[in-house]
Amino acid sequence: KYSAFLAAASGNHQTAMQNAVNSLYATSGSYRRVLDLEGARITLASPVVFPQNAGGAVRTIHNGEVKADPSFSGNYLFTHVGNMNSTNLKWIAITFEGNGVASWLSWNDGNMFFFHCHLRNPKKHAVAGQQSQYPGLNDTGTASAGLWMDMCWMTCSDMANTTPSQRTQVGIYSSAGDQKVFNTTAAYFRHTLIYDSAALMMDGC
């Protein structure tokens, strides 16, 4: 449970979240592992980095909000990059709030599942047309980096009154194959999805 990590970090969310992720991705442990955020509202000032070489397992993070501090230093709330041994990670009932200064997640190995998540306000760009810079979800892997999204909601709420040609944010960019997006709503992006691979399924969006 996240509260144990928060207490051990003397209330520092940055340290607590990094330590919780390190524990979730320990090289040994149960095949199925769950991190319960217990409804916490977690503010980050810099990215949380998933450890490499963790070994195969099915992992879940659920029930909370992770948001970027206005002074966030970096590009993504979470980075899942490197030799991840094609791990499976499920995000369930998580709110990702980028506050326009951080995108949500970058990965190039492992399968990401998003169920009942709210993904809001990824990193803004200085000018329109920078569609491939720091998209909200950035999947730059090969077939080993999958995406499955269902019953989610993505938005740039502060772009509602901006003409589409002047919007700068992208919901998802993917150069990996085997992507599935179902029953998801997206609003006010320059592009909801830029897809640079094969085997994409979308339905009910």
Quick recap:
The chain is mainly beta. Helices cover 9% and strands 41% of the residues.
Describe the 3D structure.
- The protein has 205 residues and is mainly beta.
- Helices cover 9% and strands 41% of the residues.
- It has two helices and 16 strands.
- It has helices at 2-8, 13-24; strands at residues 32-44, 48-49, 58-68, 76-80, 88-97, 103-107, 111-115, 118-120, 137-139, 147-150, 153-155, 170-174, 179-182, 185-187, 191-195, 200-203.
- The strands form two sheets. Strands 1, 3, 5, 7, 8, 10, 11, 13, 14 and 16 form a ten-stranded parallel β-sheet that branches. It has a six-stranded parallel β-sheet with strand order 2-4-6-9-12-15.
- Helix 1 (2-8) packs across helix 2.
- The chain is globular.
| Discrete helix count | 2
Structural class category: mainly beta
Q: Quick check: average pLDDT?
A: 92
Q: What characterizes the major β-sheet? A: 10 strands, parallel
Q: Write down the overall geometry.
A: globular
Q: Using the CA coordinates, give the radius of gyration.
A: 16 Å
N-end to C-end Cα span? 33 Å
H/E series: HHEEEEEEEEEEEEEEEE
* Range of helix content: under 10%
Would you identify the regions where 5 or more consecutive residues have pLDDT less than 50?
Answer: none
Strand content: 35-45%
Strands, total number:
16
SSE topology sketch:
Blueprint: H1 2-8, H2 13-24, E1 32-44, E2 48-49, E3 58-68, E4 76-80, E5 88-97, E6 103-107, E7 111-115, E8 118-120, E9 137-139, E10 147-150, E11 153-155, E12 170-174, E13 179-182, E14 185-187, E15 191-195, E16 200-203
